[in-house]
């Protein structure tokens, strides 16, 4: 994984224009801890909104999944994180005597260790099989093995993909699933900039710390020599299209080395880190229109900030 990290950094920072780093590298131990802090910030409504869906509308989710009590299910969660939302669904399924196992997939081994310990304590009877993998790679292993599958892709993780990448991802996901398998897709809905932008630029600076932690990670793991004081966190939200973007901005002309590689930054040059797409029904329909997946149900929180779409493979 270190070699891949290094290659991605060299590729993304050697560019003359449009420098970029993949956001999946946010999640080292400190990144995981900072993300959990972000989910508790007053400005970060996303987790609270989806938590409300998983706590208060668990019965609606289970009804929408239309489960067969005689079948065995694999519940696969892509980018599982800390599992604090999923536990409500898992508990209801255990209490409903459904036959299933839970397979969290995450690129962060710390996140997987955390979720396994958390679920062992909360639901000792639950069968859990963590998988340390990039979820794009995990899709390849899902082969149609005969178990009915329910895929969870929560927290608007899909929003980190462009619409074309999301279509490709859902298409590939569909080809690894059997007819009738389900997907629970959690997405952040389009809304006013005044609500969205502070979620990526909180007053306490935790999100800034989360983004800039990537510089520390590169220094520690790859031996780069980024100076933290030379860069700031710079998010934007394009309300017309519905996309938030996170950048790191270079405050001065400077260069950074990685072994024999030297990356030059102009004053005010941006390094793109992450897109966070916001959705409405039209965007979701557009993405699904080029896949074998259809939209069966939509469950929202009471503010209509967030939606979990229940989708089905045809
Ligand atoms: C923003 S957090 C969301 C966690 C959880 N789904 C939620 O809704 O709270 C993203 C999680 O996905 C994981 N992740 C990000 N990119 C990934 C990838 N390409 N493959 C596997 N896991 C990934 C991260 O390690 C992190 O735990």
From TrEMBL:
GO molecular function terms attached to this record: methyltransferase activity
One of the GO biological process terms: methylation
Organism per entry: Flavobacterium macacae
Record PANTHER family: ERGOTHIONEINE BIOSYNTHESIS PROTEIN 1
InterPro entries per UniProt: EgtD_Methyltrsf_superfamily, MeTrfase_dom, MeTrfase_EgtD-like, SAM-dependent_MTases_sf
Keyword annotations from UniProtKB, A to Z: Methyltransferase, Transferase
This protein's record includes keyword Calcium: no
Domain Histidine-specific methyltransferase SAM-dependent: 5-312
Top-level taxon in the UniProt lineage: Bacteria
Protein name as catalogued: L-histidine N(Alpha)-methyltransferase
One Pfam family hit: Methyltransf_33
């Amino acid at each position: 994984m270190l070699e891949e990290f290094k290659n991605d950094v060299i590729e993304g920072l050697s560019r003359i224009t449009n420098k970029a780093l993949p956001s999946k590298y946010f999640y080292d131990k400190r990144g995981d801890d900072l993300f959990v802090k972000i989910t508790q910030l007053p400005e970060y409504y996303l987790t609270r909104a989806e938590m409300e869906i998983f706590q208060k509308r668990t019965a609606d989710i289970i009804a929408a999944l239309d489960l067969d009590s005689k079948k065995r299910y694999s519940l696969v969660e892509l980018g599982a994180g800390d599992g604090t939302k999923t536990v409500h669904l898992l508990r209801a399924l255990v209490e409903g005597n459904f036959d299933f196992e839970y397979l969290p997939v995450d690129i962060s081994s710390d996140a997987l260790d955390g979720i396994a310990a958390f679920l062992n304590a909360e639901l000792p009877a639950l069968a859990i099989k963590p998988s340390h993998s990039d979820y794009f790679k995990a899709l390849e292993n899902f082969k149609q093995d005969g178990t009915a599958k329910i895929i969870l892709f929560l927290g608007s993780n899909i929003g980190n993909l462009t619409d074309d990448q999301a279509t490709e991802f859902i298409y590939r996901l569909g080809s690894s699933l059997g007819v009738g398998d389900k997907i629970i897709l959690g997405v952040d809905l389009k809304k006013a900039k005044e609500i969205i932008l502070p979620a990526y630029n909180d007053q306490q600076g935790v999100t800034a710390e989360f983004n800039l932690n990537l510089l520390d990670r590169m220094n520690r793991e790859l031996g780069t020599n980024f100076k933290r004081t030379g860069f700031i966190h710079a998010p934007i939200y394009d309300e017309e299209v519905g996309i938030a973007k996170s950048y790191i901005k270079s405050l001065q002309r400077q260069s950074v080395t990685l072994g024999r590689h030297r990356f030059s930054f102009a004053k005010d040059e941006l390094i793109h880190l992450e897109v966070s797409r916001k959705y409405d029904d039209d965007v979701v329909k557009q993405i699904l229109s080029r896949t074998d997946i259809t939209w069966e149900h939509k469950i929202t929180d009471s503010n209509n900030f967030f939606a979990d779409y229940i989708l089905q493979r045809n």
